[in-house]
Amino acid sequence: MKATVYVTIKQNVLDPQGTAVQGALHSLGFNEAKKVRIGKYMEIELDTNDRNEAEARLKAMCEKLLANTVVEDYRFELEG
Amino acid sequence: MKATVYVTIKQNVLDPQGTAVQGALHSLGFNEAKKVRIGKYMEIELDTNDRNEAEARLKAMCEKLLANTVVEDYRFELEG
Predict the structure, then answer these.
(1) B54 Rama class: left (phi>0) / alpha (psi -120 to 50) / beta
(2) Which of B12, B36, B40, B51 is the Cys-Cys partner for B7 at CB 3.0 to 4.6 Å?
(3) What's the rounded mean pLDDT across residues B40-63?
């Protein structure tokens, strides 16, 4: 079963990496880039076929390791 | 117009960050995590309403700055 996890910085938290990328885009002439937010994208191959179990385990992985829930949000999709 | 950009490491390229996260998951007891690949996820607010123009500009941004096309793939979605 394949999982895709998205970890994003919460809306009210500063994103210095996004600000830096926006600055770099502007200096390259891409002035239409008004706001840039950067997150993480993870593909995880899970050795289970039980969807409910996979969801519970993924939630635990996100809470414990993949996301810092103080400043980040996460969501995931399961397929297969 | 809002763009979402996904940058992933090409399939045949080593992903040390993914390997490290997989090791950390295993040491936390998540032995079902068989393969982990890590990429970047970007949300970009574009100051344009022309979809074709936005696509062309995003492609240029990815090629020039957001992705290293030697070792990374990218794809993007546009909405609004």
Answers:
(1) alpha
(2) B40
(3) 96
